[in-house]
Design brief:
This protein has 248 residues and is an alpha/beta fold. The protein has nine helices and ten strands. It has a single domain, classed as P-loop containing nucleotide triphosphate hydrolases (Rossmann fold, 3-Layer(aba) Sandwich), CATH 3.40.50.300. It is globular and about 50 Å long. The C terminus is likely disordered.
Length: 248
């Protein structure tokens, strides 16, 4: 069997991803292609399979069938640590900071090295998001929004080529949210690729050059935001009926 790999201008490709739980298909033959250096959106109603797709891509769920190519290597079935070291990192829907470690320690443990240079990198990242003064604060003493921001910075410690963001701004106050999106834009300008799950359509429209829509485990639309916002299948997935039948 010939291994499928992405074209050089794409960093992540998936073909025919299928994941079944007790007879229920959470993913149904998902095809996905993320171009290098882009911010790509992944949207869909609750329960559509978005987080399951992230679990499969990141190796947290190794029970799927199909093909995943990351940076020209087939990674389906790899352990999460192997995928992380290869350059693909992710955040989670719910914050996962280490509560008994300081903010600085939370960042340093995520890097490939744990020496003075790692601490300097961590402090630089904290400075960029106006959290350097929290370096010695325990993770459990941060606000939820600060925890989400620290989790994002922790991902950056490995200098990944591709970052999967799972609702990174959920529960975050407007000021921290703005800081987060500015950081995403900055990193993207430096060449980092992002695949983002986000429910705020204004953010998707503003950030993403390409958008995939997932519904009941299937990709039902793909394109720029202007094209998918009026797609009849997308409207039906979100509102239960198409515009032809009276959806607003």
């Amino acid at each position: 069997m010939i291994e499928r790999v992405c074209a050089p201008d794409h960093i992540l490709c998936a073909w025919g991803l299928t994941r079944e739980f007790g007879g229920v298909q959470a993913l149904r033959g998902v095809d996905l292609h993320v171009a290098r250096g882009t911010i790509t959106g992944l949207i869909g109603p609750n329960g559509s399979g978005k987080t399951t797709l992230f679990q499969v891509i990141s190796g947290m769920d190794r029970g799927a069938t199909g093909t995943i190519s990351f940076d020209s290597e087939s990674i389906l079935g790899w352990r999460p640590s192997e995928i992380y070291r290869r350059g693909l990192a992710r955040t989670f829907q719910l914050s996962r900071v280490f509560p008994e470690l300081t903010v600085l320690e939370n960042l340093v443990v995520a890097g490939h090295r744990r020496d003075r240079s790692a601490a300097e990198r961590a402090l630089g990242l904290l400075e960029r998001v106006h959290l350097r003064e929290y370096a010695a604060v325990l993770g459990k003493n941060l606000s939820y929004g600060q925890q989400k921001l620290v989790e994002f910075l922790r991902v950056l410690m490995s200098d990944p080529a591709l970052i999967l963001l799972d609702e990174p701004a959920a529960g975050v106050n407007p000021t921290l949210r703005q800081t987060l999106w500015e950081m995403v834009r900055h990193l993207n300008g430096l060449g980092t690729t992002f695949l983002v799950i986000e429910h705020n359509m204004e953010v998707i429209a503003d950030l993403c050059s390409d958008v995939y829509v997932l519904s009941d485990g299937e990709i039902i639309a793909q394109g720029d935001f202007a094209s998918i916002r009026n797609n009849e299948r997308v409207l039906e997935a979100y509102f239960g009926k198409s515009r032809k039948h009276g959806a607003a």
